[in-house]
Amino acid sequence: LNQTTIDLREAIEMRDDFITNIDDMLKCTYYGKGWNKNYKEDFTAFSLRYNGKYYLVTAGHCVHFIWDDLDTGVFTDFEFKANMGDVWIHPQLLYYENNFIHNIDWAILACNKLTNGFDYNLSNNRPTYILGNGKDNVLKEFSVYNLAEGESGSPVVNLSGDVVGIATG
Questions:
Q1: Alpha carbons 86 and 109: distance in angstroms, whole number
Q2: Which is it for strands 139-141 and 104-110: parallel, antiparallel or unpaired?
Q3: How far is CA 83 from the centre of its chain?
Q4: If 0-12 CB within 10 Å is exposed, 13-18 middle and 19+ buried, where does residue 63 land?
Q5: What residue spans of the chain are helical by DSSP H?
Q6: Pseudo-torsion of CA 80, 29, 41, 74, nearest 10°?
Q7: Do residues 163 and 46 lie in contact, with contact meaning Cβ atoms separated by under 8 Å?
Q8: Which of 14, 92, 131, 155 has the highest local Cβ count within 10 Å?
C-alpha cells in the first residue's frame, strides 16, 4: 500500500468516527437566548471542558452587541437548552470580549448543571464543521462565508470532534 491509500483509509475512519459521535457532540451544543430590559437575541453556545469543570462558550457579540450606532448593552439573563435535551439552564456570564476589529469575540458562562462538554484542541486547528442548533442548522461544512443568523457562538470542530474555534460571523 502506498501513503495515499493509507491517508485515505485514515480519513475515512476519522469521518466514520465523527458520524458515530455526532449525537454526543449535539448534546454539548446549545440553543439559547440572552436578554436585558431593551434587547433579546437568540444564538448558539457549546459546553467545553476546562480543568475538570464545564463552561458554556459563545461569541462575545451574542452577550453584548456593539456595531455602528447600535449598542444592546450587556445581556443580564440567559437560558439555554442542549440540542439533545429538554432541560433549560440559566447560566451566569463570567467574562466576554467582542472586539470585531481585532477578531476577539468570545464569552464564557457558568452553570453547575453542565455535566459534559467538548474537548478543545489547539494543535489540530483545521476547522471542518460547524455544529449549529436544532432551531437553525445542525451540521454543515465550515466556511467563514456561510454562517446564518443564529449560528454565532456555534462550535467549530475538526474531524476528530474537538473544538478548534467559535463561529462569529
A1: 19
A2: unpaired
A3: 12
A4: buried
A5: 3-20, 22-26
A6: 80
A7: yes
A8: 155
**What's the pLDDT band for 126 if we cut at 50, 70, 90?**
confident
Cell readout for 169 is: 460571523
Cell of residue 24, nine digits: 454526543
Burial classification of residue 131, based on how many CB atoms lie within 10 Å of its CB (0-12 exposed, 13-18 middle, 19 or more buried): buried
**Single pTM value for the model:** 0.87
User: Residue 124 CB: number of other CB atoms within 10 A?
Assistant: 10
Quote the cell numbers at residue 38.
431593551
Question: What does the alpha-carbon distance between residue 83 and residue 69 come to, in Å, rounded to a whole number?
Answer: 34
Residue 152 pLDDT: 87
What phi, psi does 23 have (nearest 5°)? -60, -40
